[in-house]
Predict the 3D structure of the following.
Amino acid sequence: MVHDESLIVRGEDSHDRIAVRTVNETAFERSDEAGLVDSLRLEGAIILSLVAVIEEQVVGHILFSRMWIDDRDSAHAAVALAPMAVLPAFQRQGIGGKLIRSGLDALRGRGERIVIVLGHAHYYPRFGFSTEKARGLASPFPPEAYMAAELASHALNGIAGTVRYPVSFGL
């Protein structure tokens, strides 16, 4: 088990890029998510990228990028959480949760109001995500795995529309 004092969550810097790629490729057992991270960097869509570090080794990564909710009258800014990865040897030790909480706190501090994730229905609700909050958002994803969290009270009130991800997502 990782002791909290040995885990550091900090902003990704340019020296972390190879380690971030390795974490994503290893955790997902493919290169799709690592390629998405690289593409989002090139697109300039990244809002926040955090790494989890233990004894100078990057063991986890989380990325947040700008997305939009388009309704009849306007586009509402939102944030996509994707991907989030932890090296297999360090999974189930609270590192992913620490990355999510740190990221949501940082986004809240920056005035962001809505975060959307496609993920496990039994994992993300503990961080404030729910399928109910995402019900008014049209997306290409299965509704049982598509969730939203409000970083500001009632941020989704009156908002219904189609989500628009950065081009890098290929949607």
Summary: The CA atoms of residues 129 and 149 lie 4 Å apart. The chain has a mean pLDDT of 95.
